[in-house]
Design a protein that fits this description.
Layout: H1 4-47, H2 54-75, H3 91-126, H4 136-139, H5 142-168
Helix pairs in contact: 1-2, 2-5, 3-5
Length: 173
C-alpha cells in the first residue's frame, strides 16, 4: 500500500503534467508570434507589403497566448487579485479567506466554462469560415480550453487549501 507521501505525489503528478502541457503550448505560441511578427515586419520593410493572412493569424495567436498565460497564472496563484484584508489576518484566518476566494473563483470559472461551450456550439451551428477556410469555432476553441484549465486550477487550489486547513487542525493559528 502506498504511503501518504506517495499518494500525494501521484495525485499532484496530473497537475504537473497539465502545467507542463500549458507551458509547452504557451512557449510554442509565443515563439510563433515572435517569429511570424518579425517575418511580417521584414517583409514590409523589404517589399513594401506583407502577407495578408499573417495579421489575422497573429491576432488569434495573441488571444491564445493571453488565455494560456491566464491559465498558467492561475496555476501558480499569480493571477490578478485584490488583498484588502488578508495581510491583517493571522495565518489560519488568511487560509480560510484564501479558501473562500478560491471557492468563489471556482464557481465563477465553472459558469465561464459553461458559457464558452455554449459559445462554441453556437459558432459551430451558425459561424462561418475564418482564416485558412477553417470554421471560426476551431479558432475559438481556446476559450473553453483555457477556462476549463482555469477552473481546474482554482478547484485544485480549493482542495490544496482545504487540505492544509484539515492537516493543521482546529487549534493551529
Amino acid at each position: 500500500m502506498p504511503s501518504p507521501e506517495q499518494r500525494e505525489t501521484g495525485r499532484w503528478r496530473v497537475v504537473r503534467i497539465l502545467i507542463r502541457a500549458e507551458e509547452t503550448l504557451l512557449t510554442l505560441v509565443l515563439s510563433a508570434i515572435i517569429v511570424l511578427a518579425c517575418y511580417q515586419i521584414l517583409l514590409r520593410w523589404l517589399t513594401q507589403g506583407g502577407l495578408l493572412w499573417l495579421d489575422p493569424l497573429l491576432r488569434y495567436l495573441v488571444l491564445w497566448g493571453g488565455l494560456l498565460g491566464a491559465a498558467l497564472a492561475t496555476a501558480r496563484d499569480h493571477h490578478i487579485s485584490m488583498d484588502v484584508v488578508g495581510y491583517l489576518l493571522n495565518d489560519r484566518a488568511a487560509r480560510w479567506l484564501r479558501l473562500l476566494t478560491n471557492l468563489f473563483s471556482t464557481v465563477v470559472a465553472f459558469f465561464l466554462v459553461r458559457a464558452t461551450f455554449l459559445f462554441i456550439r453556437s459558432e459551430y451551428e451558425f459561424g462561418g469560415s475564418g482564416l485558412f477556410l477553417l470554421p471560426t469555432w476551431i479558432w475559438n476553441l481556446i476559450f473553453p480550453l483555457a477556462f476549463t484549465a482555469i477552473f481546474l486550477h482554482f478547484l485544485l487550489n480549493v482542495l490544496q487549501v482545504g487540505a492544509s486547513l484539515v492537516k493543521r487542525g482546529p487549534t493551529a493559528s
